[in-house]
Design a protein that fits this description.
- Strand 3 and strand 4 form a beta hairpin.
- The protein has one domain: Vaccinia Virus protein VP39 (Rossmann fold).
- The chain is globular and about 55 Å long.
- The chain has ten helices and twelve strands.
- A seven-stranded mixed sheet has the order 6-5-2-7-8-12-11, sandwiched between helices. It has a three-stranded mixed sheet with strand order 1-3-4. Strands 9-10 form a two-stranded antiparallel sheet.
- It is 39% helix and 22% strand.
- The protein is an alpha/beta fold.
């Protein structure tokens, strides 16, 4: 019998710790607000983590274990009514289950989050059933299907934090010479973006000396994606994303927030400003 691979905990940079703090602080406010809603039928609010991982990471700064987004959410008080945690990695799921224990309000899924989200999780958060959800979509790269984002947006019951992995996109897809990009990487980009309109966004009409179209900057591409979140996915409020930078100042990804309500936007803009200068 082949030996099973050992679980490797992710080492995360300070920018990931900033993201974890932002999501944790927002989740606290979100749960407080929805718990306090005075309605004849109380709102049933849930937390969703589509790339949950093992529940803990190793900090590159301190070299110590730190709590990941699922455990941060489980510590929120007042608590969410249900938690839906997903990951495709068997060892990470096994560790997560061991950390969480046997809790009836925590539902853990092993498999492709795109299918699980569409088939199992999002149908449980229907607006007309007084369900609401806060969802973290933090893929390891271009591993997310636009259908998940668009479905969440059109439901009007879901708020999302979303990792737009610009470093992975630049490394694999948005080359100075697009003719060298592999078809499989272009297909993954189209799946994440929702169609191939990213090509017209990423490259402008100016051609350089070598007859190659000039690539647009990261900010232009991120803004085009923000517009898609509003105009195509149907999220009403999408503030400017927060660029998450590494120690050399390069943007690793943009942290997006998208919501059907103005209160969420106001809170997140405050959190982005509060944490934006951390190093």
């Amino acid at each position: 019998m082949p030996r099973q691979a050992k679980l490797q905990f992710d080492e995360v940079g300070y920018w990931s710790e900033v993201k974890l703090d932002i999501v944790k602080e927002y989740a606290q406010k979100y749960s407080e607000i929805l718990t306090a809603q005075k309605k004849k039928t109380p709102l049933h609010h849930v937390y969703i983590d589509a790339f949950a991982g093992p529940g803990v990471h190793i900090s590159k700064t301190s070299k110590e274990f730190i709590e990941g987004s699922p455990l941060n959410a489980l510590l929120i008080n007042p608590p969410f009514r249900d938690y839906y945690l997903i990951d495709i990695d068997h060892n990470k799921i096994k560790h997560l289950k061991g950390v969480v224990g046997n809790r009836p309000d925590v539902h853990i899924y092993e498999g492709d989050c795109n299918q699980i989200m569409l088939d199992e999780v999002l149908p449980k958060v229907v607006y007309g059933s007084y369900r609401r959800g806060l969802c973290l979509l933090d893929p390891y790269g271009l591993h997310l299907d636009w259908k998940v984002i668009e479905t969440a947006g059109k439901m009007k019951s879901i708020e999302i934090f979303l990792n737009f992995p610009v470093a992975d996109i630049n490394r694999r897809v948005l080359w100075r010479n697009p003719d060298g990009v592999g078809q499989s990487d272009m297909d993954r980009m189209s799946r994440y973006w929702g169609d191939d309109s990213w090509k017209s966004v990423a490259y402008n009409t100016q051609w350089n000396f070598f007859s190659i179209p000039e690539k647009e900057d990261n900010e232009t591409i991120a803004e085009a994606f923000r517009q898609r979140l509003m105009k195509v996915a149907g999220f009403t409020y999408v503030p400017k994303p927060m660029p998450m930078r590494n120690t050399s100042g390069a943007i690793v990804y943009y942290l997006f927030f998208a919501s059907p309500n103005a209160t969420g936007k106001t809170i997140v803009e405050h959190l982005f400003k509060k944490h934006g200068q951390r190093r």
